[in-house]
């Protein structure tokens, strides 16, 4: 900064701070933006927007104040130091071979100042990037910059949703064009059948790491193509396909252009799976190998996270569309026929009508696959079982990493203060040791005070929101008084906000409107409810539910007790999750893969009342909250909906409301606050992205990096060997068969034996296993059998079996084996003795 005029260096420093989204979870710079332009700061929360709006004279005046300057300099110094500091990852894995993880996602929810998200999926991606920065995990993100993002919501006079598409002006967004060293804007070209298109690139600073965004709105492109990246989840299948091509293929090319060579590629949902193909293409260019060899080399470096709990949720494309866009790419760049390409996205490669499923492609090109909660793991193993014909569902190679949320993004000022007192400032940057005990030591009064302040803050926000919505409805007049009496800072406050997708059953709570009115308007024990949510513009059913809630909200007796907050977005979610006492969630089990909004309330001292689905199915204990549902699946049985709605009301009437209003002599609901403390202590750390990202790093990224290095070394020597191994299997496997089965009683064990005919297939290339279905509540029985050569390709395999089950329970099976292969992911063959 030396040698520059004070003002210039001050401005540069402010720019640097404003462009680092670190401000979205660290509030040390808030006072700068507030002093520069309080109104823009309060309404947008966007420091970069503040810098664009504020006058030169105001900036100059502030930069002349020494404490203002000192804050800037201290923050800048901290930022520079943080960039190179050793964090959890460097300390826990000092000699790590992992250099770069590329995280691909169609949406990222980082801040409302960069609205390129729709909901939960973007939330997971955004919170994981922030945490990777906190923990020092070397991640770069890749996504799309949408000129209109996801639609915005207004509510019409009749209560129905209206979709709006305000433009994201790149100038106002806290991003920068990505420039090469000599200042040229880095643009990529892609070849489509018949034309070349420009893709612009942008960079976003997120603490220590970068997110790269791509868009097509380059004036050099034909108008139709400029609109490809306009809307998130808008447009038809062809638009979506092109978005996914840009994300995956151009995204991978960009990383290559930047000289980054990610060993690990994390595919957040099937949308991103084309990145795996581009990675194969590049590997072929570098090493002159076949498709099969390049696939074997690269796939172990790919991690695929599936977020969908129903088959209809997968992204699928018509075969004609795939053929149109990929024939030439497959033949000329991947070295495979289009039929083989289509087979990568199909269950049955011979079914010409079967659409191309992006999740299938992702599974077939990854070395590890995970779901996002324990229950979702089980659901996913069933969903993807058809890709593993003959394999028991439990053997389908899909594990789970339960989602979390980035606590520093979602906690309130008051809860942050309390946690700091209990567990220190750096509590979310380490391995969470000591957090639980720290919180358990907090006393009831402190927590109750925090809850009251947070609820008060929510009430203020609700009133402001109420006034804004009145302006939107052109109900002008009354001034600030119009909001008088709206919400009560002492009343039990419930929140229900989420996408209005049918499976979330957003109308369950409205099933008996009069009963709900009675709960809300009880004079002695008042209850208030904040609602919010958007329904996709193509989802008529979801929109009908929004209308129903808005009509309900207009009942005069509910005016002070219920508000439908319009245009549910990240800023509103922040004050909502910070202020509510109870967060309600009513998905239809098992459709909620994880859910994250309920996790956001944990650190803030809210409590969950939720269906036993997604994360809550593994988090719920009677001491920490309330559950509805019996932990079973019932489809869309209306009698079950009826019963669960009844349970919801009964819990509120008989348990929740009485407990909140049961006070000790100091007016504190002790039982309630003990429950809050238990939920904060035992759940907040467990369902934070701190835990999630450490789990990804240790269970997925590190092993993936090691495996990729091993397979790609020496020009892909191991990959070639594996490809050859598969070819040998293709040739020799068809001759494999079983002969006679026998049981031998030997001393006190029973030996099961079977004759196996392998022909020319070397016995090292297979494993013969003995399997029995699981008995109630147990795991399946599985034993590796040992073989004895009986000559001429024949072997007798033996294993001892437990005495408590009939011999007829046991079935031998033959599966391929290679010490370095990931099975059955990489080879799904299996032969059973029938
Ligand atoms: C957290 C969040 C979501 C995800 O919520 P779930 O209902 O748990 O899926 C969606 N939208 C916004 C704005 C959020 O903050």
Description:
The modification N6-(pyridoxal phosphate)lysine is found at residue 600. This protein is an alpha/beta fold and 834 residues long. The protein has four domains: 6-82, no CATH class; 88-135 and 142-403, Rossmann fold, CATH 3.40.50.2000; 440-687, Glycogen Phosphorylase B (Rossmann fold, 3-Layer(aba) Sandwich); 736-832, Immunoglobulin-like (Sandwich), CATH 2.60.40. Helices cover 41% and strands 18% of the residues. The chain contains 28 helices and 28 strands. The strands form six sheets. Strands 1, 2, 5, 6, 7, 8, 9, 10, 13 and 14 form a ten-stranded mixed beta sheet that branches. A six-stranded parallel beta sheet has the order 17-16-15-18-19-20, with helices on both faces. The termini are far apart. The model has no long low-confidence stretch (mean pLDDT 95). Residues 119-120, 123, 498, 568-570, 573, 595-597, 600 line the site of pyridoxal-5'-phosphate.
